[in-house]
Every structure is written in C-alpha cells, then in structure tokens.
Amino acid sequence: MSTATYVPYNDNLEQKQENEDQIIDSVVESMMRVNTRVFDKHRHAKRDAHAKCHGVLTGHVTVYDNLPPHLAQGVFARPATYPVVIRLSTAPGDIHSDKLPSPRGMAIKMLGVDGPQLLPNRQDATTQDLLLVNHPVIAFGHASAYLKTQKLLEKHADDPDMVRRIVAALARGGSKALHALGIDNPVVDTLGAPNNHILGETFFSMAAVRYGDYVAKLCAAPLSDNVRALTGQPLGDDADDSALRNLVVDFFNGQGAEYELRAQLLTDIEKMPIEDASIEWPQEDSPYQPVARLTIPPQQAYSPARRVFADDVLSFNPWHCIEAHRPMGSIMRARIKAYEASSKFRHEMNAQPRIEIDSIGQVPD
Ligand code: HEM
C-alpha cells in the first residue's frame, strides 16, 4: 500500500454528537452511583471498569527498525526502547469468579516517551498509555449507545451474575447485546462465550487514535511461541475463582513472553468510521501492520506490593498520551470524564496518592 492510501489526520475528522456533553455527564453520573455501591460492598474503592487484576508486569517496548514513513509516527517515529508497566484485568467493575467468561484487558503504560502531552495538566508527564481489550470493537460504539449500556448495568448492579452476562455479551457485541437493551428483564446469553487463557489473547484499542500524520486502531498480539500456543486454550474444568491470576503468576515464574504491537491505519472514512467504534475496520482493506515488540521477562507477577500499587496507586487512561496519539471519536471523548471520575474517587476513598510514574524503578517487585 502506498502512503497516499492512508487518510491524513485532521481535526475535522471528529464530529461531536448532538447533546453529547449531557449524554456523557449522564454516563458518568450513573457510573459513579454504581461505583459507590461497589465501594460500600467492599469498603474499598475499585475501578468502575476492569476492577479485577490478574497480573502486574514490567517489560519494554522496542520500536522496529526501518519502519516505513506511514508507520514511523508518534511514539513509533524512531527506533527506541521504552520501559513499560502492564496491568492485566477483566472488564466488570466488580470482582467476579474467573470460572465464568469475561472480556480481558491489557493496559500498557509506556515510560519516557517524547513529544508534548495532550492534556494541559500533564505537561510534566512522559507516559503514553494503551488500553486494550480482547475484541476488535466495542458493541456500543458511541456515547448515546453507551449510556443505554450504562443504565442497564446500573439497573442490575445488585445482580452480579447479570452484570457479568451483560459485560460478556457486550464484548462479543452485535445484535444479542443490542436486543438486551430493548427488554425489561434481559436474558443475556453468554453460553458459548469463550473463557480462554488470558495470555494467548490479542488485545485491541477498539476505538481510533491519532497516529501522527494518520489515524489508526492498535493491537497487541501474541508473538513468542509460548503465548501463541495459549491462543484459544480454554481454562480447565478445575478452574477456580482466581484461575487467571494463577495462570499468569505460574507462567511468568519460569518464562518470559513477547507480543507485537500493530497499527491498522484508516484508509476509507466511509467504511472505517471514527465516530462509531462498533464497526470493525475491514482488515482486507487495511491490515494490522507490525510496529514494535513488547518483551516481558520472567518475574513475580502478583506480589502484594505490586497488587496494591497497580490497583490503588496507578491509573491507566487513554487520555494519558502525547498529542500525536489523541483518542478519537465519541466513545473516546466519553472516556475523558469517566476515567478521571473513577480514578479520583478510587484514590480519595483508598487514601492513596494520585501519581504518574516516570521510572520503572517505582514499580515494586
Ligand atoms: C474503546 C473501548 C474501551 C477500551 C479498549 C477500554 C479498556 C479499558 C481497560 C483495559 C481498562 C483497565 C485499565 C487498568 O488496568 O487500569 C479500563 C478501565 C476503565 N474504563 Fe475502559 N475501555 C473502553 C471504553 C470505556 C468507556 C466507553 C468507558 C466509560 C465511558 C470506560 C470506562 C472505564 C473506567 C471508568 C475505567 C477505570 C478507570 C480507573 O479507575 O482508573 N471505558 N478500560
């Protein structure tokens, strides 16, 4: 593909929805009501999404040499190695058993990146966060659709099994999940949803980001043979409530892993919408192209100090980024206030400092 194929970034590619600010305020208000209930249950504040952590890892991202100009953009502009801290999670905003399927998250914080930060209050920061989930799209791909999901989650907040079913159905996306919104007592079908080893998954940004001169969706895919071998491997019948954490801890006790970061560049604004993240960008039109290697050495993945640091002190946020990777589209704009509110509440209630790290040495062993 020639560079001319790729749609150049410009500020007018984004189009705000009517009443978007009010819709987003309603999302955040509902989210915080649920979050407060989860706090009251545990007497400890959790993330409003991706509350359960399955491993905290350190490693590094190495940008590939000789990337062509369309891929050599933003943090991938030149060959470089960035230290990273990674938090593995599952999507619900409460702690559920790993016996049942839930979307998996991989949040990556890259340290020491160059370039101006996007948010004015982060001009001293040198981090770029990538928040990825193991599905290429989000079923409710813009703010008003997301508000319906959030209302549904709030309505069933005291029914953990229903919440888990809703979140799992959302991850698989599509008509079943939409159907669930239309009826009073939705029976959200999660039968057949895979409950596979977390380390064999491919994790996607789901929504678009600015990619320097262009626009892209990003993913992290298993690269080394040992994690590729785990793709599609179901958790055994003997899986217990903490099966995912146990698998991650056991794996990194003895071995390391490699993943590849890839970028899918926007080539057609009609077929590949920015404002609706529920529409998958066709890979036949624009494949995910390799840009960097993520290397994770063997380590202790879930020590008490790491668990507390990652769950209570760290914040991952798609708006923790450089200007060259501005999050784009309605669902991304909804995330500005949502992540800020969730993180602020969590830190206040757990009496923890809200800090950004600038050295991997700050992550405890
Ligand atoms: C584009 C699709 C999305 C992806 C890929 C995504 C991914 C993630 C991941 C991986 C985490 C865990 C971060 C960590 O380990 O600390 C997370 C947390 C969170 N997500 Fe999302 N998310 C998406 C959309 C949304 C939306 C639309 C909202 C709400 C409007 C939302 C609200 C949250 C909140 C509140 C947290 C917890 C923040 C904190 O307390 O620090 N997410 N998300």
From TrEMBL:
InterPro entries in alphabetical order: Catalase_sf (IPR020835)
Gene Ontology molecular function: catalase activity; heme binding
Enzyme Commission designation: 1.11.1.6
UniProtKB keywords: Oxidoreductase, Peroxidase
SUPFAM superfamilies: Heme-dependent catalase-like
Function: Decomposes hydrogen peroxide into water and oxygen; serves to protect cells from the toxic effects of hydrogen peroxide.
UniProt-recorded name of the protein: Catalase
